[in-house]
Write a structure and sequence with these properties.
Layout lengths: L7 H4 L2 H28 L5 H35 L3
Keywords: Membrane, Transmembrane, Transmembrane helix
Length: 84
Amino acid sequence: MTPEVVPLRARTSATERLRRLHGVYAAGTAVWTVSLLAAVLGHDADVRQVLVLLALLASFALMWLWSARMLCAAACRAGRRGPR
């Protein structure tokens, strides 16, 4: 089977997928922060644009923190089980 048709679960563990999501959320948080700063410091943003950017930044930051918490919980569970 080619990688395109192999189910994601068969290829990677849940922790690995969560690590990837954590990276995506971290990058999204950084991008929306830079976009918000550029809009505000450039003085060319209206209120609606700033509110949309703030909402996007808040949602990505919240998901980033959630994924960090889930990774930490997974690491704690793995630590209690001991090395494999």
